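Example for tutorial group B:
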């Protein structure tokens, strides 16, 4: 089972926040190749004496490493740096393939082959026992439909930027209807979110801070959460279980805050094979 709450390590070059999270009961660490902080994660696990079987570790393959051979070699090097024999979850980080950003048919097809090769590599690594679960990150509907063309193992999870100002409700519901779990990142990051009048009002109503309101909203949407901080008190607070139950009216009000404010990766303009009429009927 995937722990509901993960501690994110984006841009962390100091192991102390991870150590703090682990000491406060964190059982899920989220990292990625492009974070380049394998030694930081390794140090934190060693420093806390964390038993490998008691921690769930998610990582991601960077777009420059898509393709069967590249994905396999880069993954093995990546987990070796972290001192790991396996990871619990590995995601393809973003559907756009580095160096293949154009949208002409030839380039789109090349990018498709690289994504397919990367997925095939993850499937083989699952077969070999080096990855327990595989999924994607920042994938839109068209990228998922492309993946379904060739996936022998279906994606377990899609990690997305989700917060009240960018709820991505249609995509979330699409994933959940397909049996794909959704995990949010950047949930507390939008400037001004935690001082939003609605969240402040709900904070007073439920006698918890605004971050807990956001986490409760996500929990009731059946969305897993990646949280991150370098402040010890915030780390401890973010990792505490949110037990409040928002009313349907409160949930709807939070949904209405959506303004499609996207802060991070946006794959809406990244073409997928399914977007090419001339290639839709090809068999892969």
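The residue assignment follows.
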């Amino acid at each position: 089972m995937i722990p509901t709450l993960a501690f994110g390590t984006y841009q962390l070059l100091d192991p102390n926040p991870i150590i703090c999270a682990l000491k406060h009961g964190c059982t899920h660490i989220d990292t990625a190749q492009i974070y380049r902080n394998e030694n930081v994660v390794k140090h934190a696990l060693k420093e806390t004496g964390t038993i490998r079987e008691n921690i769930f570790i998610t990582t991601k393959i960077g777009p420059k490493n898509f393709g069967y051979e590249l994905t396999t070699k880069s993954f093995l090097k990546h987990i070796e740096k972290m001192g790991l024999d396996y990871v619990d979850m590995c995601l393809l980080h973003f559907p756009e393939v580095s160096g293949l950003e154009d949208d002409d048919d030839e380039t789109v097809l090349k990018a498709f082959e690289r994504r397919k090769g990367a997925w095939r590599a993850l499937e083989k690594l699952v077969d070999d026992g080096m990855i327990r679960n595989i999924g994607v990150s920042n994938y839109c509907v068209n990228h998922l439909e492309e993946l379904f063309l060739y996936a022998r193992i279906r994606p377990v999870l899609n990690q997305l930027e989700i917060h009240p100002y960018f709820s991505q409700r249609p995509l979330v519901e699409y994933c959940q209807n397909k049996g794909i779990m959704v995990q949010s990142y950047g949930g507390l990051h939008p400037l001004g979110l935690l001082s939003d009048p609605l969240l402040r009002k709900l904070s007073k109503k439920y006698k918890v801070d605004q971050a807990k309101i956001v986490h409760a909203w996500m929990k009731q949407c059946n969305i897993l959460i990646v949280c991150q901080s370098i402040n010890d008190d915030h780390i401890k607070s973010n990792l505490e279980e949110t037990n409040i139950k928002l009313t349907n009216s409160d949930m709807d009000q939070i949904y209405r805050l959506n303004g499609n404010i996207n802060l991070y990766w946006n794959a809406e303009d990244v073409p997928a094979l399914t977007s090419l009429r001339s290639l839709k009927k090809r068999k892969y």
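The CA atoms of residues 59 and 122 lie 12 Å apart. Compare this with the pattern of hydrophobic and polar residues in the output above.
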